[in-house]
Amino acid sequence: MNKWTTLLAVVLVAACSPAEAPQEKLAQAGGKPGPVPFKVSADRFADIEVLRYQVPGFEDLSLQEKKLVYYLSQAALSGRDITWDQNYRHNLLVRKTLGAIIRGSKGRRDSKSYDQLLTYAKRVWFANGIHHHYSSVKMLPEFDAATFEDMLRKTPTENLPLRKGETVDELLATLIPVLFDPAVAPIKVNLDPDVDQLATSATNFYRDVSQAEAEAFYAARINPADPRPISWGLNSQLIKDNGQLVERVWKVDGMYDPAIQHIVHWLKKAVKVAENPTQKAWLQKLISYYRSGDLSEFDAYSIAWVEDTESRADTVNGFIETYGDPLGYRGTWEGIVSIRDLVATKRIATVADQAQWFEDNSPIMDEHKKKNVVGISAKVITVVMEAGDAAPSTPIGINLPNPNWIRAEHGSKSVTLGNIIDAYQEAGAETGFHDEFMFSDEEKARYKAYGSLAYALHVDLHEVIGHASGQINPGVGTPKETLKSYSPTLEEARADLVALYYILDPKLVELGLVPSLEAGKASADRNIRNGLMMQLQRLAPGDDIQESHMRNRQLIAAWVYEKGLPDNVIEKVTAGGKTYFVIRDYDKLRGLFGQLLRELQRIKSEGDYAAGKALVETYGVKVDQGLHAEVLARSKPLNIAAYSGFIQPRLVPIEQEGEIVDVQIEYPDNFAKQMLDYEDEYAFLPVEN
Ligand code: ZN
User: Fold this and answer.
1) Which of 324, 339, 354 is the last residue of a domain?
2) How far is the CA of 556 from the centre of ligand 1 (A)?
3) Is the Cβ–Cβ distance between 671 and 647 less than 8 Å?
4) How close is the Cα of 8 to the center of ligand 1, in Å?
5) Could you please report the per-residue DSSP string of 8-26?
6) Domain count, the chain
7) Contact by Cβ (8 Å): 418, 344
8) What ranges in 396-486 are assigned the alpha helix state H?
9) In this structure, which residues have their CB less than 5 angstroms from ion ligand 1?
C-alpha cells in the first residue's frame, strides 16, 4: 500500500533545466552529427504522454548479472495478463479484439474512425483495461457502436478471440455494452462508503459476492489478536459456489495457472544464476509460494526478500498492492526488475541512517513513537523492466513488504526508482506548467535551483522515514481494519507530512543533504500549489477527488491553508485575474505540518475511524469549482498530459550454440507496436478465467 505513483512525478517533472539533458545538448552544440539523442517522449494521446527511460549501467553488468536480469524480466512480462483479468473480467477479450482489428485493418487505416479506434486501444493498453488507470472510471470510445461493428466485421474471423462455437454476432453482443454502455461497469473501484462497494465496482476480484458477505467471510478468519496475521485474501478471487463463499487461489494449477507456469519457468532459470545464496533462497521461496498458493509461504518469502540488502539485481513479482480492491484484501499482480544505483543509494542511505533521530524528534506523541526503528533499508534503483500493475504507469517509489508485522520485526525495503524520475524530469523540462502557478520570481528561481533535489529528497523522506515511522497502540487492529477505505489516503498523507516536516529541518543541512533550507522551501511551495491547484488539472468539471494520493495532497494543503488563515501563513493572491497561493511564513507552516502529522499518527495509532473519515471528507474530496475551472483554463494552452507512463526496454539474448553469451538492451519507441508485440509473446491467459 505504500507506493508513490506517477501522480506527483507528472506534476513535478518541470523540475530541471534543459541543461540536464546532456545528450541532447551534445548533439546540438557543434553543428556536427553527434550521438543520436535519446528522445524521452514517444507518444501523446488523450490525457496520456508515453515516455521512454534508459538503463544506465546495464552494459557494465557481468554476463551472469545480465542473464539474471533477463530471466527476471521474462518472469515479469509473463504475468501481465493476470493484471488485465483482475481489473475487469472482459478486459482480455477487449484487448484481443482491438488488437485483431488494428492488425486486420491494413489498407484501411486512413480514416477518422481508425484513428479513434487506435486512440481508444492505446488508452486501454495504457490502463491495462477499459477503466482509466488513475480515476478508475470507464473510458468511452469516441466512435460509436455501429462503427465498431463495421470495423470488427471487416476483420478476418480467424484473428478474432472467438471462444469455441461463438459467432461474431455473439462476440459483438458481449462487447458492445462493455465498450459503449456507460451504465455497464462504470467504475473499477468504488470507495463510496454508503453503497455496496463490491456490487458497484467492476473489479474482477469478486463474483456475485456482496460487501457484507466478503467482510463477514474474513471477519470470521482474521484473529485480531494474532501478532503475525497472514494477508487474508491477497492471492485469490472470492466467488460463490453453490451458495458457499470460495476462494479461487492464484497459483500453479489454480486460477491463472497458464501465466503463473511461465513466471515460475523463468524464476527457476533465475535461481540458477543468482548472485548469492541469500538471493537464491528468496527466489526459491517465491517459486514455492506460486506453487502452493499458501500465504504463509508468501510471508516467508517476503521476510527473506527484505533481509537481502546486498544483491545488485532485484525483483518484485507477485500480488502486491491492494488499491484495486475496494475492500483492500486482494493484490493486483505486478512485476518490476531493477539493478541498484550505487551512487544515488549513498544519498538515501544518509537519510536512512538517521531514522531513529527522525523518530525521536518527530512532532507525534511519545507513545506513538517507535523506540527502535528496525532495519530500514533504502536504495535507489535503476529500473530494467516493469509489467502488470507497474506498467505503463509506474510508481516512482516503493516501500515493501506491506504487512505491518513484517515491517516491525524485519524492516522494510524502501526503493526510489531513479532512472524513472530522471526520465520524468527530462520530459517535463519545458512544459511551463509549474511556472504558470508560481507567483514570484523568487519562487521560480528557488524551483529552478532546488526543485530537482527537493523532489528526490521528498521521495527519500516519504519512503524511508515516513512510512516506517510511528507505531499502532497495542490491541488496535491494522489500519485496513480500523480506517477501512480511508486508510490509503491517511497513510500517504502521514508519509508526505513526515517528508514536509523534515525537509524544512536544519538537520538536513547539517547532514550535507541540502546546501540550505531553500530546498525545503521549494518542496513546500510545490506541495501547496500542487495540492490546491495544479492537480485539479486532471479532474473533469464537477468531479470529486476519488484517488487516494490526490485526496492526500489536497487534504494536507487545504488543511494547512485553513489553519494558517489567522496568521496569513499562506496567502491567496489574485493578480492579473489569476489565483496564486503564496507561502508567507515557512516556520509557521512547518508547525502546521507537524500538528497535522501528530493528528494523523494519533488516528492511525488509535484506529480512530470517525476522525480519519472527517479529515478526508472535509479536506480531501470536494473541489472548489471556481478554482478548478480556472486551473483547467490556465492549463489548456500548455497541452500538458495529465498522466504519463513508459514504453519498456527490450532485452535481447544473444545465443551461440544454445548458450546465452550476451544480453543486449534496446529502446523501442513505438508504444502501439510494443503492445502488439506483447500480445504475440506474453498473452498466456484465455479471455475468460
Ligand atoms: Zn507512500
Assistant:
1) 339
2) 14
3) yes
4) 11
5) HHHHHGGGS-GGG-HHHHH
6) 2
7) yes
8) 404-410, 418-428, 433-437, 441-460, 479-482
9) 2, 492, 495
pTM: 0.78
The sign of the torsion formed by the CA atoms of 643, 57, 283, 651 equals positive
The whole domain housing 608 covers 341-644
422 and 568 in a single domain? The answer is yes
Separation of CA 467 and ligand 1 centre (Å): 7
Q: How far is the CA of 464 from the centre of ligand 1 (A)?
A: 10
CA of 551 to the centre of ligand 1 (A): 13
Q: Calculate how far, in angstroms, residue 95's C-alpha sits from the geometric centre of ligand 1.
A: 31
Is there a single domain that holds both residue 397 and residue 352? Answer: yes
Q: 521 C-alpha vs ligand 1 centroid, how far in Å? A: 21
Ligand 1 centroid distance, CA of 398 (Å):
7
Amino acid (one-letter) located at 494: R
CA gap 176, 149 in Å, rounded: 8
> Measured in angstroms, how far is the CA atom of residue 441 from the centroid of ligand 1?
31
Q: How far is the CA of 2 from the centre of ligand 1 (A)?
A: 4
Give domain status of residue 399, yes or no: yes
Residues 216 and 323 in one domain: yes
Average pLDDT over residues 87-100: 98
- Inter-helix orientation angle 168-180/145-153, to 10°: 150
Q: Give the pLDDT score at 7.
A: 37
CA distance 453 to 60: 27
**Amino acid sitting at position 326:** P
Ligand 1: distance of its center to the CA of 549 in Å? 8
- Highest-confidence segment of 133-147, 430-444, 629-643: 133-147
Model confidence at 373, in pLDDT bands (50, 70, 90)?
A: confident
- Residue 302 CA to ligand 1 centre (angstroms): 19
* Cα 495 to ligand 1 centroid, rounded to whole Å: 6
**Residue 104 falls within a domain, yes or no?**
no
Whether residue 262 is found in the same domain as residue 248 = yes
Distance 120 CA to ligand 1 centre (A): 31
Same domain, 194 and 332: yes
Tell me if 336 sits within 8 A of 76, measured CB to CB. Answer: yes
Q: Please identify, among 278, 312, 339, the residue that sits at the C-terminal boundary of a domain.
A: 339
The CATH number covering residue 197 comes to 3.30.540.30
| pLDDT computed for residue 360 by the predictor | 96
